Amino acid sequence: MNQLALNEKGRTILAMGNDAIVRGGLEAGLGYFSTYPGTPASEIGEGYLALRKEFPHIHAEFSVNEHVAAHGAQGASWAGVRSMVAMKHVGMNVAAEVLHFAGYTGVRSGLVVVIGSDPGATSSTSEQDDRWYSLHTHLPILEPSTIQEAKDFTALAFELSERYNLPVILNAPSKLCHNIGSLRLGALPDVLPAGGRFERNPNRYINLFGGSVANHRRAMEAVENLRKDVPTLGLNRLLPGSGKIGFISSSVNYPYLLEALFLLGITDAPVLKIGLSFPLNAREIESFAEGLERVYVVEELEGFIEFQAKRLLYDSGLRTPVIGKAVFPAYGELDVDIITGRIADELGVKLPGRMTRANELADRLAGDLPPRQGAFCTGCPHRATLYSIVKATGRDAVFAGDIGCYTLSCLPPFRAFDWVTCMNCGVGIAQGLLQKIEGEDLIAYVGDSTFFHSGIPGLINAVQQNADLVLIILDNKWVAMTGHQPSPTTDTTLDGTRMRPVDIKGLLKSIGVSYVRTIKPFNIKASMAAIKDAIRARGGVRVLIAEEECALQYGRRIAREPGEYEVYYQIDAERCQKCNECYIELGCPAIRREDTADGWRYYIEEASCLRCGACHDLCLNSAILRTEIRRPVGAVKS
Amino acid sequence: MKNVIFAGVGGQGVILASKILMEAAMAAGYDVKESEVHGMAQRGGSVDCHVRYGKKVYSPLIEKGTADFVVCLELLETMRKLEYLKSDGMIIVNREKIDPAPVEAGLEKYPSDIEDWLKANVGKHLVLDTKAALREAGSAKALNIVMLGALSNYLEFSDEEWASAIRALVKEKFVDMNLKAFALGKGLVA
Q: pTM for the full model?
């Protein structure tokens, strides 16, 4: 039984932050959910999809991008159904247009926007602080600080959204989305929300001319109504203290701050915990700051609360110094160590002496250790495609990168990747660059999901402007990097459900791409030849579709339904010339090196090998042998 | 309060090991908090999980110099987590080397003297040879559970508590294999 579906009020379970958000929606009677997957928020969508049986009234989907997802949630809210849209922080850039209007139009039923932020950019190309958007979208922001609050605030967000007639944002950093802790369940609604119906509301929904001005005013007044009520909502909490130095904090930094103060033996500092970081209430900030010598704001990323607090205090004439980003870094993740260290420096308190000689030695050594960044999985078709690209070009080309698993081609052994910024930066930047450079080959990458997310307009532009490039669509049939959500090219899910895959070739043809070839990545020699041909063809956009299912998904499929024959690959030590093509140039983790009685050898670790056959196809000495064995009778499902 | 860090390479099962510890701690009535980094974990990058349990836990993050245990499934990864170890804390590490990509590509060297370094600089350290235990358990994938078994010698939970935590988190058909791996791991510590 899925624990998130338990209707046992008061029961405590262990839950991830994303699970807590899912549960919060369930307790609030959610009826519609949409998302585009992105770390750290991807599991929210997976959570709702996994609950389809228990909550059949909830429509849950992975949309084609965040813009579409946000529109969908707005539509469901207009139908009178509580709706949620989730995305990672950079998804907000894509959804921003929709959400600016959603503030103007307001909601009919509660609309909650969950943003998974990524301070430290451990899984992202940027760590932008999305909270700034609210200064112009006018959307209130809740910042839960614990797993419990992640649930409670989510449920509350729907009420606030309806009461103040604005979509409400729940901002959760990766250190909340992915952390695990105890969660006390609340009650599930007795009555499941019924289907909705549309009611015309032209004053609000038709944003035109004077109507949009009226809506602008309405949104700003809604924020002021909420601002007035903040002290009565119980979202911000005061820990009183007799000290003259006060602290304001929010989100996961609040427990870090409490721990830091405890470690430093500071027991008398008043602390204001902010649960609603937009809008802030002037009276609340004033009464906290009044009489204090200084106020420190401990928040992650940029000084959003600091900025607002300073402005409110300025207007009220209070001149208590508010110190935030001058002390606590505005970039990277904060942690207890950083916060403790900065407060100790500021207040001249001695740091507790916990660090031993071994700690300090290790700290220094850590910088010299060989890094262990991610690599393509064993059997990944992208590894084979990248190998063929590197061999076909000798790295003598401009490589337009993009976002997906293939971003790993910036790392050794491939290093054939020249930029990555936002989704579809590959073709988009390339087609402009090509108008002003000459005589260079350009290879652009894009994955299937990224391409459908927002790549089609850029490609149409490239075709119309006759950009001279080779686009390689790495079609692995899944949104793989974020945990295998379905992509528009997924044709059958693992449980056998048939999807309606988009016909990429038909689409390319219809937008005017006349050169389209499909390559099978594990056929290295054929792929290399196709890449060389495409480069030589010159003139206009040429597209190669590298089509092969993600190895992890393929592996799961095969585990469920093994074929009649089992295949093995082995390295024949007699024939192996140790030329390093498979071990270094392909870099497959299943190929290992081991010492032997008379030197060393390369071998294939059978348990890791996914039988993709790329090494077999590329070996220059035919030293990698393929063996096919018929499985024993009964091992194959009928 | 106990602070335990699990570390290793993506795919080794670091996260499952930490979940089993959390489950045991929660069942025993403790407040539990955990912090981890997702993203590249499945793709062979460094992975670590911080687990804290006690009467009341505020922050899910373990501060440097305060970990009671660092349990590491790969030798090199130990070195990245040492700064977290308490002065009388203990390192439990699997004696296995997995070359990171830059080492495979011949760009960098895998440090050769890690065990000597631990001997010289860390009071309580345990370098375990898990190969035989894994062979006996019947799966190389049980490494995380073998290491958890080794750790269990130093924590307050009973065998029955561990077993029910394993049952709660492992697929039914793998429970027996994992219970065996746990016992074998426990036995690795003399």
A: 0.95
